[in-house]
Amino acid sequence: MSGPGHAHARIGTPGAGRPVARATMKDVAALAGVSLKTVSRVVNGEAGVSAAVRERVEHAASRLDYSHNVHASNLRRASSRTGTVGALLQDVSNSFSASLLRTLEDVARARQTAVLAASLDEEEDREIALVRGLVARRVDGLVLMPATSRHEYLAAELRAGLPTVFVDRLPHGVDADSVTVDNVLGSRHAVEHLVRHGHRRIAVLLDLGTIQTAQDRLRGCREAMDAAGIPADDRVEVRDLRTSDAAEAAVRAFYRGGPSPTAIFAGRNDLAIGAVRALRSLGLSHRVAVIGFDDFPLADLLDPAMTVVRQNVGQIGAEVGRLLFARIAGDTSPPRRVVIEPTLVVRGSGEIRPS
Amino acid sequence: MSGPGHAHARIGTPGAGRPVARATMKDVAALAGVSLKTVSRVVNGEAGVSAAVRERVEHAASRLDYSHNVHASNLRRASSRTGTVGALLQDVSNSFSASLLRTLEDVARARQTAVLAASLDEEEDREIALVRGLVARRVDGLVLMPATSRHEYLAAELRAGLPTVFVDRLPHGVDADSVTVDNVLGSRHAVEHLVRHGHRRIAVLLDLGTIQTAQDRLRGCREAMDAAGIPADDRVEVRDLRTSDAAEAAVRAFYRGGPSPTAIFAGRNDLAIGAVRALRSLGLSHRVAVIGFDDFPLADLLDPAMTVVRQNVGQIGAEVGRLLFARIAGDTSPPRRVVIEPTLVVRGSGEIRPS
DNA sequence: CTGTCTCGTGACAACGTTGTCAGGACGATT
DNA sequence: AATCGTCCTGACAACGTTGTCACGAGACAG
């Protein structure tokens, strides 16, 4: 207690402990009067330690608040798993990424694995920096919803055997597992649905043109329109919409002496919400049809309830987890591309007929 | 290429690399024809390496796909930071936890720190196990939205100086930083608001009674009702509601020959949503007032738009980040208890008068 | 030419842990 | 009594890295 290092150490207050070094196996060994290796045996529950010694060690460990250092342990161990995986998603606060993270977390926890989560916000540099950080932390696996469109920068890691699963977007330039949604199909179905309800002037709201899913969704729309003989119309095809507010403004513009579409397909859930806000304020929410891509909480409570193309997030997350941990467990079969079919959820807003 | 270990190693396929060991500084040193220590100097950008040697080392490193091992580095370094913090939240897929995580992540990223995220789902054992795991991983700090009601189990860690910030719920039995919302105040304001609009039969929906915030919210309601001279009524005070569905069922029961409250205060956002579903299906959504605790996306788009008590999540997250990283940076001042005042956001559902 | 100083580089120990192996105590077998 | 095997325990090296120190080469002053 009077040692120089402890002189001013208070107990139980936040900053008090910094000077107090953590107890190591060596300290526990000294207190228990055994060798370091014996402590290691006890801590790891190995056989070949007498009950008396085991008890002495455990007592010493708890008296010193000993906590195992997994980093040192992994460093020494033969085939070191860090028990950590990384998840780089678009934005952990949006409901799609958040649900995905949650499902992955559940799978990981069942395997004693922790999840490092981060948001990319479609920033390419951030993705590359974060991947580097995760590799430096020696994560056992990586789940990636990429912001980049080319993934050669990952080649070395993949070659080194880093289990990697792409989600929502396909890998380009490297070969890796992926779990994606058939965006072309989903948006084609949505637009076909609108056409079937009599629409010919259908607006399309889309995210950043650099994002794969946005491109695919556009393609799906075009296919459906081509099949219906509806010519492409630049005035109602708005791209590079990043926010709900941008979508709202775009939709407002449609009806200010503009093309006045009778239906709107929104290529992302918050764009759909922006569209609803605009229509609501224009008094058009019961006169213009809306279908959004990606379901969201409360879509059924809006008025009219929103018809959406649903990506089954639970299924996506489960597939991602399954693939990732199979690789971590040593599965070396060729990369798999799991494609999940989205479904149209009919709720009302997509069934409004043109007036 | 003909070495025995590489004979069957394919390139670029997921499982190909497992047998290929990662290059270490030793390997880089050998290839560059320098000592290991020189590689360390180059990798860490230390001074005292000639340009020629530096270039040779960098070239060798990239040829071997060398990646720095932060765990070994931290182990050796004097004052080791792992550059990782842990966030144990209620459920990373609910919008409150997710937003909090997101804000924390932004603060952390600015400090080159990664975030380990996990959900507790109000399970006490899981909290304890996860904290142990985070400590074993030597996180630099911990953000905790506890499922437990007593926190003595953290005493040793706090004593050892683990920077810890409680969020949404206060620490009990130990002294630590916290950022909470004044739940009593918020719910008192909500009920006062209902009383002011003429309500005397006000139902209260609450989460698990073991959760601190639920207790506080109940207390706030009671204070407001006492002040208004409204006697407590067990029939309209429903506790231990875990899900939106449970809330929906409870509200349905109110109007099946039950007490028929003229207003409902829901102590959590998804309970409020359950209430809305029930009222909607009973055709009462414009006749019974509803106020929810905690704002949520689209609350303004419901019909009627929902009046809520808003906890400013951005502010909470920012405070948590600020406190946590101040501690990590060495701040040893006494623990702080930051309390944030929630505000009533008036939107319509809370201003319906009794019929 | 010698001595000193600086600069670039390397040898070695150490961080906290685990795998390998060897040794001592003890009871059982010859 | 000598030999063997079993059980428990410890000494030591190693994982990949960095801090410390020492050494050799060249520059420069005396």
Q: Estimate the mean pLDDT confidence of chain A.
A: 92
Strands of chain A, total number? 12
Q: What overall form of chain A do the CA principal axes indicate?
A: elongated
CATH fold-level topology of the largest domain in chain A? Rossmann fold
Biggest interface: A-B, 79 and 79 residues
The chain-level structural class of chain A is alpha/beta
Q: What would your notes on this structure say?
A:
Two copies of one chain form a homodimer. Chain A starts with 24 loop residues before the first helix and ends in a 10-residue tail after the last strand. Chain A is α/β, with parallel strands linked by helices and 355 residues long. In chain A, strand 8, helix 11 (269-282) and strand 9 form a beta-alpha-beta unit. Chain A has helices at 25-32, 36-43, 51-63, 70-76, 95-109, 124-136, 155-159, 183-196, 212-228, 244-254, 269-282, 313-328, and strands at 84-89, 114-119, 141-144, 164-167, 177-181, 202-205, 237-238, 263-266, 289-293, 307-310, 337-340, 343-345. Chain A is built from twelve helices and twelve strands. In chain A, strands 2-1-3-4-5-11 form a six-stranded parallel beta sheet, with helices on both faces. At the A-B interface, helix 4, helix 5, strand 2, helix 6 and helix 7 of A face helix 4, helix 5, strand 2, helix 6 and helix 7 of B. Chain A binds a DNA duplex (30 and 30 nucleotides) through residues 24-26, 34-38, 40-41, 43-44, 48-50, 53, 68-78, 80.
Task: Sum this structure up briefly.
Two copies of one chain form a homodimer. Chain A is an alpha/beta fold.
